[in-house]
């Protein structure tokens, strides 16, 4: 590394210590001029930015030793972090304030590049977890005499390609300085919420004919994504506990959750839609990138944190098809999780009423498509809706009419633990994806019911089990394990029913018969959905009648 009056040159053998020498030189000779009002140029260094408002917004620092960062349960060592400009190096770094991440390595081979990318991916996932509304994150890696710039968002990671410092040193210098001069918007930070006292404030402007509404929210989300490649669903509860503000990334093509909610608005057994708007599009930061000669970097999914799907199996799509929009929705959500059931009766009625809501939704041309215990809530009946169980989350719904079209049904989407066996069979055998049907959703309700009977024990200190082996990492194992349990239902599944739910074994056997036939191996979806809905709801009603003594027609 050497410098002349106005030129900085990085020599070929660049490594961590010398990189920091150069960074400190660059900071002292150039960047420090931008701390506060523009001053006279420093001696032997011309002022290279003279625009008003070009002061530094953030600063970089070295994590000098392995330490536990706030917001993580493991020790980490990050070569370079970019924090807000008022951050003191004596403080413990926090993921919720990190703006940019950089990594250095002496070697420049393929293995080193992959290792640093995986390390960056881990850091980025932690940043997104701490900043769930973050839109994208800038990163970079420096390998000996080469560097690579990255931008991560909810669709994946995009690279500049490996560049030689000797050939394009100006690009590297420009990138480093740009990171420190970027506005919050250019850094990908959330701009859609504001802080008033201890509460957050969200103003939803209302799309189409929806009203403009303002909500005071608890700044700590009740739902936040844990993976990197995801729809980024993040939910905030309002201070009055009456509503939820939900953020989610969705395709710009076809129908969105907003369209489905508007159609489902009058349906009993569904949450009440209030208003919505669009916040941002990924094309705003990816739109200027040229993918004409882009190559996909194929990494093994077993070792890649951003590809490991524990809830949803996400499709791999071309960068040209990755334009997503961040939407914001307000819904009235007066309810409790299904797992919060206080009695067996409350659990049964909640599941039955959610199935009734599913049938009404199906009658209006919408298939929910992602039935899980998390998408069924308990609620109190109202004058408009006597339901005690509601369906929520239409993020992965399927439109069954020309006016409600999506492309989600071409991919294996759903919550693994509750996914229908027929869909798992098709994918594990490498066949084409089978479209979702009402029968698949009703089968998922069956798995929700079984989960409650096995995992929701109400008596303290009673032994309980779980069905997590339906969520193993290998798809083929999921299919085999679940199929084995259904085929040996009484010996494996019914045996696990906990004391509070043991009286529901007959209902479980009846539901299995309706869905899979006598031997547990009947699949397929009858054209007429009414008989299967009728038999399942009748079976729930019969069991509820036995508990309450009240007859349901």
CATH superfamily of the largest domain: Transferase(Phosphotransferase) domain 1
Secondary structural class: alpha+beta
Q: Mind telling me the C-alpha Rg?
A: 27 Å
Q: Can you give the mean pLDDT?
A: 79
The count of β-strands is 23
- Helix amount, in percent? 25-40%
Number of helices: 13
Number of domains: 3
- End-to-end separation in angstroms reads 84 Å
CATH topology of the largest domain: Transferase(Phosphotransferase), domain 1
Please state the second-level CATH architecture of the largest domain: Orthogonal Bundle
- Contiguous uncertain segments of 5+ residues: 1-14, 45-54, 64-68, 301-317
CATH class of the largest domain: Mainly Alpha
Q: Mind summarizing the main beta sheet?
A: 7 strands, mixed
Overall spatial form = elongated
Protein name: non-specific serine/threonine protein kinase
GO molecular function: protein serine/threonine kinase activity
Catalytic activity: L-seryl-[protein] + ATP = O-phospho-L-seryl-[protein] + ADP + H(+); L-threonyl-[protein] + ATP = O-phospho-L-threonyl-[protein] + ADP + H(+)
Domain Fungal-type protein kinase: 78-453
Short description:
Strand 9 and strand 10 (156-159) form a beta hairpin. The chain has helices at residues 16-29, 110-130, 169-181, 184-187, 257-264, 283-286, 344-363, 421-428, 438-455, 475-487, 489-493, 505-516, 530-548; strands at 2-3, 8-9, 58-61, 67-68, 75-76, 80-84, 100-105, 136-143, 146-153, 156-159, 163-164, 194-196, 199-204, 213-217, 234-237, 243-251, 272-281, 324-332, 335-337, 366-367, 376-379, 389-391, 398-399.
């Amino acid at each position: 590394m050497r410098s002349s009056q106005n030129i900085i040159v990085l020599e070929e053998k660049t490594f961590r210590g010398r990189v920091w020498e150069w960074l400190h030189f660059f900071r002292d000779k150039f960047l420090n001029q931008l701390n506060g009002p523009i001053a006279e140029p420093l001696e032997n260094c011309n002022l290279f930015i003279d625009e008003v408002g070009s002061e530094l917004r953030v600063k970089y620092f070295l994590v000098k030793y392995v330490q536990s960062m706030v917001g993580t349960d493991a020790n980490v060592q990050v070569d370079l972090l970019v924090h807000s400009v008022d951050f003191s190096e004596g403080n413990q770094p926090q993921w919720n304030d990190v703006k940019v991440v950089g990594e250095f390595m002496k070697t420049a081979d393929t293995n080193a590049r992959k290792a640093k990318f995986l390390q960056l991916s881990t850091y980025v996932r932690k940043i997104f977890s701490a900043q769930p509304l973050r839109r994208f994150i800038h990163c970079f890696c420096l390998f000996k005499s080469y560097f690579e710039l990255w931008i991560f968002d909810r669709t994946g990671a995009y690279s500049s390609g490996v560049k030689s410092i000797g050939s394009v040193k100006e690009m590297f210098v420009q990138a480093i300085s740009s990171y420190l001069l970027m506005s919050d918007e250019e850094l990908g930070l959330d701009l859609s919420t504001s802080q008033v006292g201890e509460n957050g404030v969200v103003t939803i402007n209302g799309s189409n004919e929806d009203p403009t509404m303002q909500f005071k929210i608890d700044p700590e989300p009740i739902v936040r994504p844990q993976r990197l490649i995801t729809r980024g669903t993040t939910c905030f509860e309002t201070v009055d506990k009456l509503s939820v503000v939900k953020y989610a990334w969705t395709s710009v093509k076809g129908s969105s959750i907003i369209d489905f909610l508007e159609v489902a608005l009058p349906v009993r057994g569904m949450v009440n839609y209030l208003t919505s708007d669009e916040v941002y599009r990924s094309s705003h930061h990816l739109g200027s990138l040229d993918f004409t000669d882009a190559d996909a970097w194929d990494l093994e999914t077993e070792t890649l944190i951003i590809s490991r799907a524990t809830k949803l199996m996400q499709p791999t799509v071309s960068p040209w098809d990755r334009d997503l929009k961040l939407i914001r929705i307000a819904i009235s959500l007066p309810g409790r999780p299904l797992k919060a059931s206080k009695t067996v009766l409350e659990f049964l009625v909640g599941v039955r009423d959610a199935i009734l809501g599913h049938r009404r939704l199906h009658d209006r041309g919408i298939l929910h498509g992602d039935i899980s215990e998390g998408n069924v809530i308990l609620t109190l009946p109202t004058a408009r809706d006597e339901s005690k169980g509601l369906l929520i989350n239409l993020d992965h719904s399927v439109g069954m009419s020309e006016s409600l079209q999506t492309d989600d049904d071409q991919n294996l989407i759903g919550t693994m633990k509750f996914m229908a066996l027929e869909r798992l069979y098709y994918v594990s055998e490498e066949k084409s994806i089978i479209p979702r049907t009402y029968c698949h959703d009703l089968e998922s309700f069956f798995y929700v019911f079984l989960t409650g009977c096995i995992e929701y024990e109400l008596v303290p200190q009673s032994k309980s089990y779980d069905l997590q082996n339906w969520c193993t990492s290998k798809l083929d194992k999921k299919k085999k394990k679940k199929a084995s349990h259904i085929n040996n239902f009484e010996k494996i599944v019914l045996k696990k029913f906990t004391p509070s739910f043991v009286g529901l074994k007959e209902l479980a056997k009846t539901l299995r018969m309706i869905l899979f036939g006598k031997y547990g191996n009947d699949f397929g979806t009858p054209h007429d959905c009414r008989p299967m809905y009728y038999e399942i709801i009748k079976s729930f009603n019969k069991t509820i009648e036995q508990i309450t003594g009240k007859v349901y027609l």
